[in-house]
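User: Please fill in residues for this 104-position structure.
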């Protein structure tokens, strides 16, 4: 579908821009919550289940924002895609915070 057929000559998403941004926000919020929870559980669990918690934590922290970025890119919302990609840096922040709090 060309931008003109979509209703906007600039190529912006005019069909469901709010729905796309709400979806991206929900996915990024889930990654902001599930990532630290999974990592904290992995640090505190025994060796048998730590791998599953690490997988959940980092899968949610990286996978969900990338999914949100893909959805917003296909919808033509570049600003939301950039914000979704910025969320991928979140694991660096919470890993450092969890280890600083554990050491202190």
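Assistant: Residues filled in for all 104 positions:
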């Amino acid at each position: 579908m060309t931008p003109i057929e979509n209703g906007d000559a600039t190529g912006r998403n005019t069909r469901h821009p709010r729905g796309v941004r709400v979806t991206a926000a929900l996915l990024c919020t889930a990654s902001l919550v599930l990532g630290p929870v999974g990592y904290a559980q992995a640090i505190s669990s025994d060796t048998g289940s730590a791998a599953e918690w690490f997988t959940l934590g980092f899968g949610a922290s990286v996978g969900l924002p990338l999914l949100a970025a893909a959805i917003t890119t296909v919808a033509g919302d570049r600003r939301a895609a950039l914000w979704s990609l910025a969320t991928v840096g979140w694991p660096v922040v919470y890993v450092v915070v969890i280890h600083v709090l554990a050491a202190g």
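For context: Helices lie at 3-6, 17-44, 47-75, 78-86, 90-103.
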